[in-house]
Amino acid sequence: xxxxxxxxxxxxxxxxxxxxxxxxxxxxxxxxxxxxxxxxxxxxxxxxxxxxxxxxxxxxxxxxxxxxxxxxxxxxxxxxxxxxxxxxxxxxxxxxxxxxxxxxxxxxxxxxxxxxxxxxxxxxxxxxxxxxxxxxxxxxxxxxxxxxxxxxxxxxxxxxxxxxxxxxxxxxxxxxxxxxxxxxxxxxxxxxxxxxxxxxxxxxxxxxxxxxxxxxxxxxxxxxxxxxxxxxxxxxxxxxxxxxxxxxxxxxxxxxxxxxxxxxxxxxxxxxxxxxxxxxxxxxxxxxxxxxxxxxxxxxxxxxxxxxxxxxxxxxxxxxxxxxxxxxxxxxxxxxxxxxxxxxxxxxxxxxxxxxxxxxxxxxxxxxxxxxxxxxxxxxxxxxxxxxxxxxxxxxxxxxxxxxxxxxxxxxxxxxxxxxxxxxxxxxxxxxxxxxxxxxxx
Length: 442
Prior knowledge:
Layout: H1 15-26, E1 31-34, H2 41-49, H3 51-57, E2 63-69, H4 81-99, H5 104-112, H6 117-127, E3 131-137, H7 140-145, H8 148-161, E4 165-171, H9 186-189, E5 196-198, H10 204-218, H11 228-233, H12 237-249, H13 257-260, H14 264-275, H15 279-289, H16 299-307, E6 311-312, E7 317-318, H17 321-334, E8 338-341, E9 346-349, E10 352-353, H18 360-370, E11 376-378, H19 379-386, H20 398-411, E12 421-424, E13 428-431, E14 434-436
Parallel strand pairs: 1-4, 1-5, 2-3, 3-4, 8-14
Antiparallel strand pairs: 6-7, 8-9, 9-10, 11-13, 12-13
């Protein structure tokens, strides 16, 4: 299918976020943009390089945007990465100066001072009264791998010129979550702590604009694209794009969520989002997808999911019904048999929450068996665990038989047709499959 070029993005693109970010940058504050996979961080970085965008937000030619994309770095085993990044910063400054038609005297001097980033910044900031905004796209790898001295040098450069040298970094997670030695580099990441913003899904206006651009590229009538493409994707750029191309390649395709989750490209984008989440965020997303009560949520994970635009509403729901179904499928594929959560006193049967609550003794029996999944638990050991203040001799206590019968009924099985619990004559009781999960709470 032939593709056409699109006109530039409108100046209103991501304006609900950028009006705050760019105002802070102009006032000399460093900012951090946090966005999960596929939210278009590089798209925003390119958007900020446009002069008409800078003019619309700042109306000041003395503010320069210097883009540093780590994906564009060419590494050399003979040179440290820190030097290569510094060289790129210097090179981008000179390129910007050339495009702005700064005097030839400066360009000649800057070229001769090629490895002196500090001197070039001083001349631009002090003599030309410029503000330099370094935009670091794909900052994750640099932040996680470079020596602390590089970031201390960036902090020193910032301190020398105060609000005239500003950084905007784009990552998939908060900076303080991504390094083990956060205390050592605290002087750098604290620059961003007051101005950390989430780059979440598109709002409806931006989502419709992107659909129009995709339709233009594909020479596909935009009027034939159902609005459900936006609502099902939740406005997530990469998921929206995957659904569009699937629909474009087969306009008779069903937009039912179960059918969409059979398309490899759609599943791949959902998988990228899932993998970007921490284990605590994944666990919380599973609870939210199952519409379970969040009586004691992990507040750090909850705040991070909200920052990244993964949640909406109160009580919170996942941003996309498609992604919510993907998460439910993860729950069902990861949990089989009987799974017990002692903290929340909840039980799952093959991934489905047991709706009717168990009595304390029924739950205690199931929890004990779940902690010994696969093992045959002796009746006396079970009785001792359930009734610690009583002494038992032999295996004939009828209370255990009655309790086991009630538990089987709650689990939807019988002694003649066991599904989860197996009894061994003269031996004990065995939970065939399942286990314990420990909910992360604060």
